[in-house]
Automatic annotation (TrEMBL):
<dbReference type="InterPro" id="IPR006311">
    <property type="entry name" value="TAT_signal"/>
</dbReference>
<dbReference type="GO" id="GO:0016042">
    <property type="term" value="P:lipid catabolic process"/>
</dbReference>
<dbReference type="InterPro" id="IPR029058">
    <property type="entry name" value="AB_hydrolase_fold"/>
</dbReference>
<protein>
    <recommendedName>
        <fullName>Platelet-activating factor acetylhydrolase</fullName>
    </recommendedName>
</protein>
<keyword id="KW-0442">Lipid degradation</keyword>
<dbReference type="GO" id="GO:0003847">
    <property type="term" value="F:1-alkyl-2-acetylglycerophosphocholine esterase activity"/>
</dbReference>
<dbReference type="Pfam" id="PF03403">
    <property type="entry name" value="PAF-AH_p_II"/>
</dbReference>
<keyword id="KW-0378">Hydrolase</keyword>
<keyword id="KW-0443">Lipid metabolism</keyword>
Length: 444
């Protein structure tokens, strides 16, 4: 079976291998010697370097090799959201006091970081949020430069399009909710381009970091929790991670209900954005994910009927849901080579889907085309003297399709799916091939 669970290969930016992707553990000097950090998706994590200004007034000038900010540094960017609404964002620190973290010894209470992205009207005086907090950013900068064989000292990571703690735009009965789960060992920030776009179209999107599986999670006050997974994960390790992820997602749904009822589930009880309580339409909740995150969406749907519709972006189905199936809408969106003829888990799962279903392929894509790694890697290729063998490895992971175009296509089909099944608004994009998006192939 072709597994799409891991985020990146052992050489995060350079491996051209196929099949199951593995990770390597590296030692990173970050104030404490011997900190371990898995290298999956390093450059595509965000944040800003010391001195960078993550604000709405970031000024860029175009050069033949990319965009340069006012500090004269290469400024990586993500495609702007296409919806009509501006975006707010906030992060919450959640503690599941009923559950022990299976990855720690001695076992501590399970802690998570989540981000909420939502439509807003008022952004006056607010700053756009950094992609990743500063301490985590510097770990990524160091290792990404090593993997690319090019220093990133003059590179600033993206600033998101979400305004920090902006008030939530009111909507009668609240906004529909979508959960996002990233790939194995990946951080929640890797889905930012897709998450932001859904928020700009009127959804509250909740992205989840799966602590101690994710390569790094920064908690309030700068505390870092790093990956504790085996260097060479087995099927048993993937299955264990999937079970933890299901519990994480269901716990997050419970905390969202508390928040919506007027409670504050944040562990530090930080002030919530104005209008956030009561802004969620939890009766219309969906979920999507990349790689193991897509598997997580399917498995969580099987256990929890609060999730009405799900999307798997290029992830094999490894759990019981491949046999039990689902009676609710589900979309499989795979890379150019990830069809049911190549992945038996998709064939089995497909045969047990009893509700609305679609299987689409994105031409010219590879596994990482569905993450923020794609646009960032293409910008770095154009701007930095990256060795040819490293560029070849990047292409094997992000595909040959133009990254911004890939993001456009992915956004269109994700929003069409959730609009159809959570808002009952049919764009007819999922009914048949569209001349606007010839890159999408409908599989019978």
């Amino acid at each position: 079976m072709i597994s799409q669970r891991s985020t990146l290969s052992t050489k995060a930016w350079t491996s051209a291998t196929t099949g199951r992707l593995t990770r390597r553990t590296v030692l990173v000097a970050a104030g404490t010697a011997g900190l371990q950090l898995a290298t999956a998706g390093l450059v595509a994590a965000g944040g800003h370097s010391p001195g960078a200004d993550p604000s709405a007034k970031t000024v860029l000038r175009a050069t033949p090799t990319g965009a340069v900010n006012r500090q004269g540094r290469l400024q990586l960017t993500l495609p702007a959201p296409t919806g009509p609404r501006r975006i707010g964002t906030t992060s919450l620190h959640l503690i599941d006091r009923s559950r022990r973290d299976p990855w720690t010894s001695p076992r501590a209470q399970r802690e998570l970081m989540i981000s909420l992205w939502y439509p807003t009207r008022n952004t006056r005086g607010l700053r756009r949020a950094p992609w990743l907090p500063p301490a985590a950013t510097e770990l990524y900068r160091q290792q990404a430069g090593q993997d690319l064989q090019t220093p990133l000292d003059t590179v600033d990571f993206p600033v998101t399009h979400g305004y920090q703690d902006a008030p939530v735009q009111p909507r009668l009965n609240g906004h529909p909710v979508v959960l996002f789960s990233p790939g194995y060992a990946a951080i929640r920030e890797l889905g930012t381009a897709l998450v932001e776009d859904l928020a700009s179209r009127g959804y509250v999107v909740v992205s989840i970091d799966h602590t101690h599986e994710a390569q790094v999670v920064e908690f309030p006050s700068g505390r870092l929790e790093l990956n504790r997974q085996p260097t060479e994960p087995t099927d048993h390790d993937y299955a264990a991670a999937l079970r933890v992820r299901q519990d994480d997602a269901r716990f997050v749904l419970n905390q969202l209900a508390i928040l919506n009822a007027g409670g504050n589930p944040d562990a530090e009880h930080r002030r919530l954005p104005h209008g956030l309580p009561g802004s969620l339409d939890l009766s219309n909740t969906g979920m999507f994910g990349h790689s193991l995150g897509g598997d997580t969406a399917a498995e969580t749907m099987a256990l929890d009927h609060r999730i009405l519709a799900g999307v798997d972006l290029d992830g094999s189905i490894s759990g019981a849901v491949a046999i039990t199936g689902l009676d609710r809408p589900f979309l499989l969106l795979g890379n150019a080579h990830h069809g049911r003829d190549k992945d038996p888990s998709w064939a089995k799962f497909w045969s047990h889907l009893r509700g609305w279903r679609r299987h689409l392929l994105l031409s010219g894509s590879e596994h990482q085309t569905f993450t923020d790694l794609a646009p960032l890697a293409q910008q770095l290729e154009q701007a930095l003297p990256i060795p040819p063998q490293v560029v070849a490895g990047l292409t094997s992971r992000i595909g040959t399709i133009d990254a911004d175009r890939a993001v456009t296509v992915e956004r269109a089909y994700l929003s069409a799916f959730f609009d159809l099944h959570l808002r009952h608004h049919d764009h007819h994009l999922l009914s048949r091939p569209s001349p606007r998006y010839p890159e999408i192939e409908f599989m019978p």
